[in-house]
Amino acid sequence: MTFVVYNSLTRTKQPFRSLEPGVVRMYNCGPTVYSRPHVGNYRAFLFADTLRRWLEYCGYRVEQVMNITDVGHLTDDGDEGEDKLEKQAKKDKLDPWEISRRVAQQFFADLAALGVRQAKVYPKASDHIPEMVEIIEGLIAKGHAYETGGNVYFDVSTFPEYGKLSGNRVEELEAGARIAVREDKRNPEDFALWKSDPAHIMKWATRFGPHGFPGWHIECSAMSRKHLGDRLDIHTGGEDNIFPHHECEIAQTESFTGQPFATYWMHSKFLQVDGGKMSKSLGNVYTLDDVAAKGYSARQLRFALVRGHYGSPLNFTWDALKDAASALEGLDDLVRRLRRASKGDGAAAPAEAGAELLDEARRTFEDGMNDDLNVSRALPGLFALRSAALEGRLGSAVAARALEFLAKANAVLGCIQVEDELLPADIEAQIAARQAARKAKDFKESDRIRDELLAKGIVLEDTPKGVVWRKK
Questions:
Q1: Cβ distance 332 to 382 under 8 Å?
Q2: Which helix (H) or strand (E) holds 437?
Q3: Cα 40 from chain centroid?
Q4: Which of 167-176, 262-271, 402-411 comes out lowest in average pLDDT?
Q5: Cα–Cα distance between 347 and 27 in angstroms, integer?
Q6: Which residue in 144, 238, 277, 389 could disulfide with 337, CB within 3.0 to 4.6 Å?
């Protein structure tokens, strides 16, 4: 089955085909590093990671770039308001450069905890000013941009396809424009490529003036072009990026290069919290530290965020996270059962028993993932395999192959405990002491040790082949 994706640009599902056979060039809109990313942000980043992993499962080499926005993203996501980093700097009484470095470090630490594969590069906007200026100068030369009072704006009237991603028509944007339109703009919908502000802390001297800084949109065009070339296979982001950010990226990039920018545009839906929006005033803007404080791991959070389809709204609650943690424990348990069955432990089923079950599980998983990365449709294949393992319907040879398949599936999901896990020496000693107590029929001591281990998160299961353990 061919990998089919929903393309926000065409508003249809389309078979995926890369521009260069076997290679995918993918750009993911990353964080604006003024505050630590929260679980809502991580839904978009984990979607990008899962997409990259599935493409690699399908045999592609993925050239992935995720940007770091450390300047130029204003509070209204357009041309008005304060720079988000500078606003935070004033609030914290810190240098904005220091804030961007600190938050970026937190971001990378969170990515590692969530098991996100490293992108080819994480370019910072502030490191790509020359590339931005090159595109801006080219747009001016081609008649797509104009200078006024140190600012440079993109003239939307020169790009007739403006609105093709978001569906926003220029006439509607003009009708909805605020009365107080900037007088230096030719058209209300024109957007800034370069801004001039002597009071701005993060600024650069260019031919446009001594104290300028880039508009948010031009940054991604410059960074994607430098690291991936003029054309992309896939561009992703959250649904809030569609307009104005991605719409403006398309307009300026295609006007500069004269060719299509990205073939496929893919957007993840918002993450709701307790059925509503995240809000600092409601105290429901959760970071990885908040998740850990509730007793959940980053691995469990990852599973909770990726198991729903990226294109559908997802409601985050602590009960939902608890349910995800329980379901993930079931998959961890499947690994342990397959490992034992592959060694001949458990039911004495013929070696090839369950071969058709395994084939069906693989088909279900792959069909689900090929259907626009539908993880929720793919997972039943894995849980059907677990039911077969629980009922002892898998022979040793099939269990061994199932274990290999599960490792491949986890290379996509990134959250199942598929590796052999070693216990600390003191835990191993307690398990041995319990076994000795059972052998001596000292069941009171045996139960005491078992309860003590359970309090430490270690669950023991007595089988005809001996004791096995798992983490709670």
A1: no
A2: helix 425-439
A3: 10
A4: 167-176
A5: 49
A6: 389
CA distance 273 to 41: 12
* pLDDT tens, position by position, 350-396: 999 999 999 999 999 999 999 999 999 999 999 999 999 999 999 99
| DSSP label of 83 | B
Class of residue 2 by CB neighbours under 10 A (exposed 0-12, middle 13-18, buried 19+): exposed
Mean pLDDT value across residues 51-72 = 97
What token pair was written down for 440? Answer: 């001596």
∠ CA 132-31-231 to the nearest 5 degrees? 45
Nearest alpha-carbon partner for 260 in 3, 25, 1: 25
- Please determine, for residue 177, whether its predicted confidence score (pLDDT) is greater than 60: no
Both tokens of residue 144? 């797509």
Pairing of strands 23-28, 61-66: parallel
pLDDT 10s digits, 110-165:
999 999 999 999 999 999 999 999 999 999 999 999 999 899 999 999 999 999 99
Asked if the bond preceding 130 is cis, omega within 30° of 0, the reply is no
- What does the DSSP assignment read for 402-419? HHHHHHHHHHHH--S--S
Rounded to the nearest 10 degrees, how much is the dihedral formed by the CA atoms of 304, 308, 310, 311?
Answer: -150
How far apart, in whole angstroms, are the C-alpha atoms of residue 30 and residue 32?
A: 7
Instruction: Confirm if 116 and 49 have CB atoms less than 8 A apart.
Output: yes
